[in-house]
Amino acid sequence: MIFSLGDKVKVSNPKGKAGYIWADREGEIIEVADTNYPYPYEVQFGPGNTLCFSAEELSPIAEAPESDPVNHPSHYTWLPNGIEVIDITKHFSFTLGNALKYIMRAGHKGNTLEDLKKAVWYLEHEIKAMEAAA
Prior knowledge:
Helix content is 29%, strand content 19%. It contains three helices and five strands. The chain has helices at residues 85-89, 94-105, 112-133; strands at 8-11, 26-32, 41-46, 49-53, 58-60. The protein has a five-stranded antiparallel beta sheet, with no helix packed on it. The termini are far apart. The model has no long low-confidence stretch (mean pLDDT 88).
């Protein structure tokens, strides 16, 4: 792979060297030498902290997609594999779905305690409805 100035990269450990201290560090390419040179990519990890690497030792870091606050707000899209909270809650009743929604977004939007209290409110509402129907 060929990298360019400004690319965000992560250092890998392609040869599996034990104790390789640079593995998993993230930085930005600040200089590109002749690619015939064994270590053409100078990566900066912080002020005054740079080192040169080969392309085999680097992998690109994908830019985070911009949040879509209407269709895909970040507090509902944090789950792995692209699953959104609504992909789960739509399989439940309105009250149970809302309880799950507030539990799953807790810590990702606003006041965590308030979200958990809202979840409890919906659960208590569901329990009362079930008890009334019994």
